[in-house]
Amino acid sequence: MAAVQNRIAKSIYIIDPRPIGGMVFGATDDDIMCNTPVDVSSIDRAYSSDLLDYLKHVGVDAADSSYVPRRVIGDYIKYNFRKYLQEATRSGINVLKIDSSCSRINALSRGRYELVLSGHTVWPTICATDVILCTGHGLPKVPLIFGPYSEHFTFFRSPYPEAEMLAKVPASSDVLIIGSKQTAMDATLLLCREGHRVTMLSPSGELPAVRRGFAPSYKFPIEQSDLRELIALWCPDGSHLNDRSIRKKYLLYLARTLRRFSNTPVSRQFSKLKETRERLSEEIHIADDYNCRWEDLIISYVDAINSIYFDCKEVNAHDFQPGFRRKMMRYIAAAALPNAKKILKHIGNDVLAVKQGNVTNIQASQADGKAWKVRWDGGEGRFDAVVCATGFQNHHYYFDDAGALVLDSHHASAVGRIDIAHDLSIRNPRTNKRENIWVTGSATHHRILTSSAIFLSIPQVTAAMNSMVNAVYESLGGEHDLVGK
Ligand SMILES: Cc1cc2nc3c(=O)[nH]c(=O)nc-3n(C[C@H](O)[C@H](O)[C@H](O)COP(=O)(O)OP(=O)(O)OC[C@H]3O[C@@H](n4cnc5c(N)ncnc54)[C@H](O)[C@@H]3O)c2cc1C
């Protein structure tokens, strides 16, 4: 969309083995809901009314604060794709979607790149002058202990595609879900709806916090210098204050910032309860009463932290103390209020239990019925199916010895790993040369706290596109062939 709006390319190739919309917004079950409300989910520009206008156009009754099914966002993305395809055609821009995966990018002479596509007979390679990598997250993370069972017929590496999972889980099953965050909640809501009983198991045994929505960062500007000082307090080499003192400083800072922006006392914004059901219930009350004002600051915090991290060479060179970071992520990745209410109902109906622990032993048979015997520190159980909801791997892109950018790697490689500049262009560490290749979304993971939301990835795309426009104008002024993945 941005490339067509900027009239920056003569040809645009979109390379992706998946259809437009990707995995997350390719959901087909309308009980898989967005975790972000309408007002922060536009893909045209962040915080625009574009999505709301679209919903009105297609007759979906929604407001700024509504949560819609992820399928609806998928339809909205496809609608925009068709719209911009027409605009591209009118402007003489050639757009081609190639259903393939790109495995490597070779640098050719005169600023051109050759993209090697996997298993495509018509297009084994294509050439382009500029490349944007929008490759999202990688494969599902499967805990090592489940590795030997990954081909078992009632083991699921992730709940998606959800229709496949639901079709394979035998009727009225006891299902173990590994994880207790967003993906685990998605899986739980569908499985409980279908009459299964679910146990969520995770090392923290904690559900995400609960929020109503988000507020755009421009409404709640955060002073970056204060945060910068806070982040500098903890060092991975241990040369820092003791954890207790650091934690105290973090909390004082948070309380101070929250008081600056809201009249709701800090103590009324959070639950101090420990037991899962009681805590969830209290957090739902807090959100219902609109006392969860911390949510107004989330986007500002993430924007500020992302930009501070970007100035560091490595995210983990300076970071928050790990225990605090985990707690902070519980709020950053909080659950949307409607989903939290459904989860509470399932706990109340005794069809959902949330347990804390790490899996220590697994026995899986090929028999029908309770094929899984799983033990964890603190308990054990027999299950008909196991679903992993432990997140997704990050891509680790690097330049190999031949100077090619390797894209099919899920393994961290310190040697030749791409360096990402502020304008999101990448620098080849072997040649120290800036490439006409830009990275957005999850692949920027080693430079930022998170980009896992539309409102975070759209500004990245805008920044990358602005940088590309500048690069084009600085160059000979020739027209460019753009590749996005
Ligand atoms: C479970 C879950 C729920 C989420 N819910 C929300 C939400 O409610 N609201 C929200 O704003 N955000 C949500 N997000 C985050 C959201 O998915 C991302 O912000 C958004 O999808 C980023 O878009 P993207 O195009 O960068 O990546 P993606 O949507 O992940 O798309 C990446 C695409 O790249 C393709 N690809 C990967 N490697 C290659 C390769 N080598 N060659 C060719 N193609 C390749 C993949 O096939 C994929 O289609 C959620 C994420 C997850 C995991």
UniProtKB/TrEMBL annotation:
Bilayer-spanning residue ranges: none
InterPro entries with a match to the protein in the record: FAD/NAD-bd_sf, HpyO/CreE_NAD-binding, L-asp_N-monooxygenase_NS-form
Domain of life: Bacteria
PANTHER family given in the database record: BLR0577 PROTEIN
Occurrences of domain FAD-dependent urate hydroxylase HpyO/Asp monooxygenase CreE-like FAD/NAD(P)-binding (ranges): 11-137
Lineage, opening ranks: Bacteria, Pseudomonadati, Pseudomonadota, Alphaproteobacteria, Hyphomicrobiales
UniProt signal peptide: none
Protein name as annotated: FAD-dependent urate hydroxylase HpyO/Asp monooxygenase CreE-like FAD/NAD(P)-binding domain-containing protein
